[in-house]
Amino acid sequence: MRRSRFLFALSGIQACAAASKFWYENIKHNGISASIPNGNNWTVFRNVKDYGAKGDGTTDDTAAIQRAITTGNSASTRETGRFGSTGQPAVVYFPVGTYLVKATIRSAVGTLLMGDPLDKPTIKASADFAGAQLLFGRDKQFTGLVGFYHGVKGLVLDSTAVARTKAITLLEWSVSQNNILSDVVFRMPVGADGHTGIATTGLNSGLIMNELVFEGGGTGISLAATQYHLKNLVFNNVKTGVKFMNLLQATAQGLRFSSCSVGIDATVATMGMLNLIDSTATNTSALVTAGALSAGAVSGSLMLENIRVDGSTVRVSGTAVLTGSVEPGVSWIRGNVYKAGSTSPQLLTGQRVPTSRPDRLVNGTGFYYTIAQPTYSEYDVTQVINVKDVAQHPVAGDGVTDDTASLQAIVNAAAEKSNLVYFPHGIYLLSDTLFIPTGSRLVGEAWTQLSATGTRFANASRPHPMIQIGRPGDVGLAQLSDFVFTVADILPGAVLVEVNMAGPKPGDVALFNCHYRVGGARGSKTQTACANPQTCLAARLSLHLTQHSSAYIENSWSWTADHDLDGGSGTVYPGTAGGFLIEAQNGTWILGSGIEHHVLYQVNIRNAKNVFIGLQEGESAYWQGTGNKLLAPEPWSKSLLASDPDFGWCAVDSAMCRMGLYQIVTSSTNLNLYSSGFWNFVGGPTRAMCTADCQENAALYEGNSRMHVYGFSTINSKNLILERSVSASGGKGDVSVAAPRTANAGAVFDGLFKTGVVAAYLKMSG
Ligand SMILES: *[C@@H]1O[C@H](CO)[C@@H](O)[C@H](O)[C@H]1NC(C)=O
Ligand SMILES: *[C@@H]1O[C@H](CO)[C@@H](O)[C@H](O)[C@H]1NC(C)=O
Ligand SMILES: *[C@@H]1O[C@H](CO)[C@@H](O)[C@H](O)[C@H]1NC(C)=O
Ligand SMILES: *[C@@H]1O[C@H](CO)[C@@H](O)[C@H](O)[C@H]1NC(C)=O
Ligand SMILES: *[C@@H]1O[C@H](CO)[C@@H](O)[C@H](O)[C@H]1NC(C)=O
């Protein structure tokens, strides 16, 4: 697919952009910013060459690239905060080429920096590069914890021209949820100790980085974060692949180290729990180096599963404590383990424990299925439908016009022809369900918004989907990428997405970089009408995976707002009853998820089978907890569904007990749940900071079998896990505390907060 660059250069029409075959480079770009004044005239797509970049490997392109990022409109540039976080969407696009830069490039909120995936362009630091970072990936107005809406994909970042003796970080990436870091190569000189691929510093709450390659350098990733899912990362000739600077809970899946000195350096004292699965190391002296396991305040918990190595596997203080591979069928665990039949945890210091993976979830060699996020670069532009460029079915995407009927007609026609459907950035209002038939591939642009409106979604007792992927029994393909699903109004019956379809292959039904947002942004009445959760039953559910569905979900943040992304002041307390409801039996893969601030539960798995979760980060609603009078299931008690918890195990007046659970798992089987990270920092209507036990219970497990839980960490929960029995007829026993924090105390986090950590919970694994 490589074009001949020479031909164009020779004929002197190099500036003519009609060169790459990549559909996105060539399609009509008519995205808008629907929520700012004069937003129809907002430039979403920015080809850096249109801003003066040459990409010839010799011209200094620093200023041109920065201009492409920073340019706003006649009212303001983009780095001022004037447009909020959601009002200044931009895709800064790099055609094939090598872009030489001499100083740090700064990103801005709402920006996806994206290269042509057919021949990834390179951003290259010059030999005389001045600055500590090649790319500062986060808008400087935000700290890491509120660094949302940034992206980098399809690029090569290169420091090979910079002296080995210098210190440089290719990508500063102290960001949190709703970001994309995918398909990037970090190219550094071999042996250059001061060169670091990615660095995160301070406090961050990131979800996932995926499909990255690191070549050379001293450190691939220097990572400080509450949690992360690292997926399919390759490290060649990097001295240290991943160096943790602090961590509560992470999953590293599909990491491949070759000719490194250390794969993962987990020696830092503030190291919570790491799950390392489906990974390999060759010619690497240690896959993992760790500090001593400290009991009492457990730090340094580890779980390794399906690991192939030719050197030492885990080394503690210079001594190999594990060598050789960890074959399928066992986990090697260091930390607190609840074995089947035991009521108290056992502190394992590094032992093999039997495990199993459901056939449905793994490939022929026992690895969990993973799928690289599609770019659809195999599509010709003629096979792609821009929804705002179909004459018979006008679509506005302006946050005012009802686009339901036109979009349905376009999506239906596209599915029949297997066309790709492109939604230029905007806010597309849906007054009824948009049905996604088999054969659908939908892509957004810098987080295109699909937003529910109207009476169809108004009845709390009759949930109604905004996006419905297939009907029960449908088998086929439906993939959605880069959307935000939201509500334009207070809609107690709105289910943002319902999946019914199963794919013939894992990943055929998939949601990539698709997020759920209720409140806290312009373009919705929930931005200003939700000071009180009692009067703001803003949505029912984010995502419902129904019984026959089978879906692969990578990088998703389900966020009921706790603050206003667009700078509005005042309290933001919309109430969404639930986050993810999983009743699917036919194979579910959830990678890199954050599910936050829903009233009754964050994730509810019931009557489900064959579920893999790689990371579930969670937070409770900030207004719940001590001092709150609206006790769960309020304000939803008048419209509870059979799937909702009734909190009957709590005293009627217990504000600490009557808080949304992070995870409920009921009558389900074949579950492999990794890295549950459940955090609570503030509580009650005044959001008082809370540093001890702020929430009574984190999770409730009832009547499950073949359930394997690896890495369950909390901040400020009195109990990690509750259990109760379920009889064959569905009758439930009494709730009892199965894993209290006192028996699983972790290190104090950030000098303040009480943590709990269980390395493995296998009581229901039989
Ligand atoms: C639209 O934006 C361009 C570029 O910023 C500007 O020159 C032009 O005046 C704007 N038009 C309107 C109607 O605002
Ligand atoms: C093994 O890795 C070292 C660097 O750690 C490298 O110098 C050496 O060439 C590698 N050997 C092979 C056989 O790849
Ligand atoms: C399973 O996945 C792993 C990791 O992607 C891969 O190396 C292996 O070849 C796959 N096995 C089969 C049978 O496809
Ligand atoms: C809301 O839905 C419930 C359950 O379907 C139904 O009984 C009730 O009549 C509906 N309320 C309204 C106002 O439509
Ligand atoms: C599960 O999905 C497969 C396709 O992968 C489909 O053929 C089958 O009917 C589904 N089974 C159920 C119980 O939904």
From TrEMBL:
Signal among keywords: yes
Highest classification ranks of the organism: Eukaryota, Fungi, Dikarya, Ascomycota, Pezizomycotina
Pfam families per UniProt: Pect-lyase_RHGA_epim
Keywords: Hydrolase, Signal
GO molecular function: polygalacturonase activity
InterPro entries: Pectin_lyas_fold, Pectin_lyase_fold/virulence, QRT3-like, RHGA/B-epi-like_pectate_lyase
Signal peptide limits: 1-19
Name of this protein: Glycoside hydrolase family 55 protein
Chain ranges of the Rhamnogalacturonase A/B/Epimerase-like pectate lyase domain: 45-265, 385-451
